[in-house]
Amino acid sequence: MIFKIIKIDDQSRLKKLEKIKKSFLSKKKDDISLFHFQEVKKDMFHTVFHLNDEYLMGTKKIGNQTSVPFSQYINFFFFKNSRFCLIENTDTVYFNEIKNYISSKTHEQIQEYTLNKNDFSNIVNRLGGFIKKIEYSNGEDDYEKGFSSIEDFNVINKDYFIDYVSLNNNEYFISIYKSGKVSVSNSDEDYLIDFAEVIVDELENHSI
What we know:
The protein has 208 residues and is an alpha+beta fold. Helices cover 26% and strands 44% of the residues. The longest helix is centred in the C-terminal third of the chain and has 18 residues, at 189-206.
């Protein structure tokens, strides 16, 4: 699954989502509804949003002739004691719609977060594992290095700017981007909850 890290000012406002009536059916085209809301761990909340969309089919000359209803479900993790949250990022359009929906329902400003050197260091060292690839630069030239250790990563992160790192952790592949996007090749519920908690914990407790 792919997530985008966001940052808010007042996390307590996100609890307003709990008061929204849950539904798996949207009432109008392109509408968004709250499908699921649950406290999965103490002070950690998981919500699922349902987006109503359509597949359009037709030809180049005739145009769209048929539409088929399509449902997209987007996961969102937030925490009572953290300003950082994770929104599933399956598509840029869906991501922006969910971000705007959350903002409108909670009256909270949402900022997309970019990782810095400190963030990369804390997250990678906390996750551990074996580095598959590092992409980095000195501000002018771009470089990449494959099959490295955590120690190699720390040396590079000290002297360069990290753009991307992928690692193997407990047989799962994790990718972390400077843009604030994180992905993991695992859809197991318990693993995803722990993964989200680790990312947010490191950002909240150690971010500059």
